[in-house]
Design a protein that fits this description.
Structural class: alpha+beta
């Protein structure tokens, strides 16, 4: 079967034939290269690539990249028109700026031509996060939640509300309770570039958002202000978080949970396999649970932080990349990916008994995803996020009040968006 013939048939049909008869389509599609940060996603995608190549003969190179300077590295390459890679796996919040700049290519025509792909198997919040201006620019590989992980041996029942969480945090912070087995009662990813996302859950629970449906700035609204004041006060007034929380990210949270420093933390589902592995986390592996975020006045909202593969707009191998992604992010590939250490966001995979049996937190992931808070889907998302982060860091450091930080951030956001 020639490449031309295969292209006319459509990648989906070709993959189906190849999977049915291994060796039928040996090396008919070009080798594709996907850049991905080193870590569990790279390992899981590598397993899917091996299964795909074994069944189709079509080569795929998964190229792990160092985490330091990762985003700047691939964005610089995209802006320079590099064809060193065909796809790049990263988090969804960077899609709007890259799509608006024409640096990544859309997937809509591919999805429309893949009758068996079933994009509606992805929760609505995932579909939204994959798109810019109503168009798919990312194919979802992972659902990652930034949600609540707590010590079940210390806290028998998950906190229902943010007030409950705060009460637990006071009880299990040694400066308030010298008998506490944990040094701090709460922590989150407060480092620059992360705190805006860490704030999404509590903000949504209070009925707030950074922008309204007309893209008018609501960052200084009473709802956002109430949530932000509680969030910041847990560090500056209650002192239940590490004092250097504005330097904390995934590695610090992971270690803090592993070594018993923390009683509760906003943590990422991607780290749960490590925390539940008694070889890697022997002191806590049987005493940690993941649940949806606590409720605010408007219910429970959880930050959904999906990952996926963006297509390099300059790639000469777009059809070959899609052929792999149709399998990798499909129902079969999603199970392989999840069992190898990733977490497919497909509802059918999240409900898969075999996957859930190995990952007891998966039902909570499915539950939380139905009340998810996503990221900004506007072309100016990066500039708006940087404005918030600049003043948020000052508030967390105690240099300005929470209220003042939101007023200053909102003023700058309105200037960026040129409107309300």
């Amino acid at each position: 079967m020639s490449l031309k013939r295969r292209t006319l048939m459509g990648a989906g049909t070709a993959i189906a034939l190849a999977l049915a008869a291994p060796g039928l389509a040996q090396a008919e599609l070009a080798n594709v290269t996907i850049w991905v940060q080193s870590g569990p996603e790279a390992e899981a995608l590598g397993e899917v690539a091996r299964a795909y190549t074994e069944n189709t003969g079509n080569p795929v190179t998964i190229s792990p990249q160092g985490r330091a300077g990762w985003r700047q590295r691939y964005e610089t390459a995209l802006a320079a028109g590099s064809t060193e890679f065909d796809g790049v796996l990263h988090i969804s919040r960077f899609v709007p700026a890259l799509a608006a700049g024409g640096l990544i290519a859309p997937y809509d025509d591919y999805i429309a031509g893949a009758a068996e792909y079933d994009a509606d198997d992805f929760p609505e919040i995932i579909q939204s996060e994959m798109k810019y201006d109503g168009t798919w620019y990312m194919m979802p590989t992972d659902i990652t939640l930034e949600t609540l992980v707590y010590r079940t041996d210390l806290i028998p029942e998950a906190p229902e509300t943010w007030d409950d969480l705060r009460e637990n945090a006071l009880k299990f912070t040694q400066s308030h309770n010298p008998d506490s087995p944990t040094k701090y009662g709460f922590a989150y990813a407060g480092s620059p570039g992360n705190v805006m996302a860490a704030f999404l859950g509590i903000m949504g629970g209070h009925g707030g958002d950074f922008l309204d449906s007309q893209s008018c700035v609501t960052t200084d609204s009473p709802e956002v202000t109430a949530a932000w004041k509680m969030f910041v006060d847990m560090k500056n007034e209650d002192k239940v978080t590490p004092p250097d929380i504005n330097a904390w990210d995934y590695p610090e949270l992971l270690v803090g949970l592993q070594n018993g420093t923390l009683a509760q933390a906003q943590f990422f589902t991607a780290g749960m396999p490590i925390l539940n592995d008694c070889a890697q986390s022997p002191d806590v592996c049987e005493n940690l649970a993941l649940v949806a975020q606590p409720e605010g006045p408007m219910g429970s909202k959880t930050r959904v932080n999906p990952l996926g593969v963006m297509m390099n707009a300059q790639s000469p191998n777009k059809d070959a990349l899609w052929a792999f992604l149709e399998f990798a992010t499909g129902k079969e590939g999603g199970v392989i990916y999840s069992k190898a250490g990733g977490q497919s966001p497909r509802s059918s995979v999240l409900a898969n008994e075999e996957v859930a049996s190995e990952r007891p937190w998966v039902p909570e992931v499915l539950k939380a995803s139905k009340a998810g808070m996503g990221t900004l889907r506007i072309a100016e998302s990066r500039e708006v996020a940087e404005a918030f982060d600049r003043y948020a860091q000052q508030a967390i450091a105690g240099q300005i009040t929470p209220e003042e930080s939101l007023i200053k951030a909102a003023e700058e956001m309105r200037a960026i968006l040129g409107g309300c």
